[in-house]
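Is this the right way to post structure tokens for a design question? Let me know if I should format differently. Anyway, here goes:
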């Protein structure tokens, strides 16, 4: 009796296969592997979907890949030069692809045949050149021609498929590996795990790792653990990543610099900088040396909190450890100083990096231009692009122009922004969706709604190369509603839905706000009520908009009811919500209710904003003797 153990990893249903020694029997039928229940090991069914480079294309002759192969390995001295060349190129890659292909063709015709290591070195050279598809093609030719391969060859091909974003083919090739009598090793599975993570399938990578441990298929090494930790970090599962980190230590597998750097980077991105600094201290205490990547993550994290003193301390520590800052380090500092308006410090950093022999790149100057634009000094940013970058031979990219376009739009100089936009094709650059969004928003900001609508129809709707996102649609809906084109906004919203774009809560907030402010409260209410049917939950902004709309139309009971309902639904009101409803009570002469709500607001740590305070003062001027208002003045304005 045969029993299949299936663990689905991908759409193509490649399955984890465990392999053990002893009397276990793995039976292959129609490219599926089954566990023979009479043996002592268990394994999983593996379904092949190797569509292009199918397993059936491999040699079906008696296995030429085992040690008793009839292929003679070459020890001919005349081959020595070629073998030395292959050894060298396996580390650096060939200068030209044609050279690599010529060598492969020569190897095929050699008598006796070169050893398998030489073919492996050729494939390794192609990988160094990032010619992954060519490497796969040569691997196929080797298999079809019956040229010996080994586990390293299969691992190389699996790695190439992962780099080509075809992890499904990589798993299918895993079946071929076993079919030809090889036992996949830790490198094989590390490659597959990394491939899953690179294709944004960290959950499947974690499942594969779990089953590797469960079935004792391999002894995970530091690369295995670090790869899985990286996948967990990419999903934001830092606590699970740290747990696995401690588990690997417990199992006697010592983390290395890459492991620590992966965790430190994740902690910094989650704004847990002090915990990241704690890991830095731990690794150095254990004698594990941090590298520039480790410090870059920490410097970025500290810059996000403007902890300049700690940044300087880390830079000093790097100097003590003889770790040189790289371009990325300096770019982080330029960007951070620019965002804080400290443009002189940003320029000093660039000057210092040049003195240290580091060359500023386009990212460096983009950060500097962005800093100028944030200060409203867009002409100075333009001078960086037209003068400084040109002098240093640095070619601006699309982001360089988009920064300037955004800067001029914020300064309401849309015509200048459009000039730069039209310059992009002349520079051989293509605008991104963000570039288009910036121009669209600039038109609406300056009240040029006709040009905005034409720009959208002509440049965005007709551009098949662009995929409209929610942000684009939000800009258009907001601009239309703000200019009282509510019917057109609703029509566009319906077009969005028909085109398959799934609106997020921000889109609904924009439309609800526009409808309610343009006298279409019932339509806004209908959209709001139907949010759960769309799989969306109203956020605090959604609730506040509806409360404001109800208050504006004198529907205080509805406003108050919705206020109570939002907290029951797990959405806590913020200061804007409280102030909105309080002003609604003022407007409708519900002063006692306003007083109760103000007490609650203050108890939650919020205070009356300028609009609420102004409304109360205006009421006191017109109704000086109203007891409820006098009580409010005594409580909140003294």
């Amino acid at each position: 009796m045969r029993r299949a153990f299936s663990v689905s990893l991908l759409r193509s249903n490649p399955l984890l296969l465990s392999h053990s020694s002893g009397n276990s029997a793995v039976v292959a039928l129609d490219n599926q592997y089954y566990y023979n229940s009479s043996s002592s090991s268990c394994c999983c069914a593996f379904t092949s979907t190797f569509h292009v480079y199918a397993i059936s294309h491999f040699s079906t002759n008696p296995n030429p890949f085992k040690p008793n192969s009839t292929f003679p390995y070459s020890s001919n001295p005349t081959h020595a030069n070629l073998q030395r060349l292959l050894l060298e190129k396996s580390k650096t890659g060939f200068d030209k692809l044609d050279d690599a292909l010529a060598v492969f063709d020569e190897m095929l015709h050699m008598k006796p045949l070169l050893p398998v290591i030489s073919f492996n070195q050729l494939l390794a050279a192609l990988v160094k050149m990032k010619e992954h598809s060519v490497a796969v093609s040569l691997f196929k030719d080797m298999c079809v021609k019956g040229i010996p391969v080994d586990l390293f060859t299969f691992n190389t091909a699996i790695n190439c498929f992962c780099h080509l974003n075809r992890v499904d083919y990589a798993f299918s090739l895993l079946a071929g590996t076993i079919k030809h009598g090889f036992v996949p090793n830790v490198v094989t599975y590390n490659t597959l795990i990394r491939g899953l993570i690179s294709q944004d399938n960290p959950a499947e990578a974690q499942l594969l790792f779990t089953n590797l441990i469960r079935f004792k298929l391999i002894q995970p090494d530091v690369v295995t653990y670090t790869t899985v930790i990286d996948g967990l970090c990419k999903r934001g599962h830092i606590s699970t990543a740290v747990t696995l980190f401690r588990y690997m230590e417990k199992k006697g597998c010592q983390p290395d610099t890459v492991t620590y750097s992966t965790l430190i980077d994740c902690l910094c991105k989650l704004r847990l900088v002090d915990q990241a600094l704690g890991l830095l201290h731990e690794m150095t205490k254990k004698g594990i040396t941090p590298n520039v990547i480790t410090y870059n993550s920490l410097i970025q994290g500290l810059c996000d909190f403007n902890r300049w003193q700690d940044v300087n301390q880390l830079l000093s520590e790097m100097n003590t450890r003889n770790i040189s800052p790289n371009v990325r380090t300096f770019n982080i500092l330029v960007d951070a100083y620019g965002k804080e308006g400290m443009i002189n410090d940003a320029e000093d950093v660039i000057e210092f990096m040049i003195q240290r022999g580091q060359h500023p790149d386009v990212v460096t100057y983009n950060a500097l231009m962005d800093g100028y634009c944030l200060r409203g000094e867009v002409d100075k940013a333009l001078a960086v692009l037209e003068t400084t970058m040109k002098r240093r031979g640095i070619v601006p990219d699309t982001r360089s122009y988009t920064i300037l376009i955004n800067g001029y739009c914020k300064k309401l100089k849309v015509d200048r922004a459009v000039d730069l936009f039209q310059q992009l094709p002349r520079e051989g650059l293509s605008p991104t969706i963000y570039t288009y969004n910036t121009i669209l928003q600039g038109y609406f900001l300056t009240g040029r709604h006709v040009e905005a609508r034409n720009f959208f129809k002509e440049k965005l709707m007709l551009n098949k190369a662009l995929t409209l996102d929610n942000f684009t649609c939000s800009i258009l809906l907001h601009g239309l509603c703000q200019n009282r084109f509510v019917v057109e906004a609703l029509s566009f919203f319906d077009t969005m839905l028909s085109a398959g774009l799934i609106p997020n809560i921000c889109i609904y907030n924009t439309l609800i706000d526009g409808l309610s402010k343009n006298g279409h409260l019932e339509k806004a209410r209908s959209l709001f009520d139907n949010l759960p049917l769309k799989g969306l939950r109203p956020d605090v902004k959604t609730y506040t908009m509806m409360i404001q709309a109800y208050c504006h139309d004198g529907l205080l009971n509805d406003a108050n009811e919705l206020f109570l309902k939002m907290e029951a639904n797990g959405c806590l009101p913020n200061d804007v919500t409280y102030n909105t409803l309080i002003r609604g009570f003022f407007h409708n002469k519900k002063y006692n209710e306003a007083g109760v709500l103000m007490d609650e607001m203050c108890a939650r740590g919020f205070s009356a904003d300028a609009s609420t305070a102004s409304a109360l003062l205006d009421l006191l001027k017109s109704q000086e003797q109203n007891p409820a208002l006098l009580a409010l003045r005594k409580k909140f304005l003294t």
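Format looks fine. Someone answered above. Worth noting: The CA atoms of residues 32 and 47 lie 5 Å apart. The chain has a mean pLDDT of 86.
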